[in-house]
Amino acid sequence: MMLIKLTCVVVFTVAAIALAGPTLSPPPGPVTESGRFGTRSMIPQLPHTITASGSYYLGANLTGIAGQHGLTIDADDVTIDLNGFALVGVPGSLEGIVVAGTHINLGIHNGTVRDWGQHGIMLDGGKNAVIEGVRMSGNGQSGIFADDTTVIRSCVSVSNGRDGIVGRTIVVVDCNVNDNTEDGIEVGIGSVVANCVATNSGFRGIASSSRTTIVGCSSSSNQHGIAVFPDSTVSGCTVSENSSGGIAVQERCTVRDCSSTGNGTFGIGVTGAGGARLDGNNVADNASGIDASASLGNLIIRNSAAGNGTNYNILPGNDVGPIGSAATSTSPWANISF
Question: Whole-model pTM?
Answer without folding.
Answer: 0.88
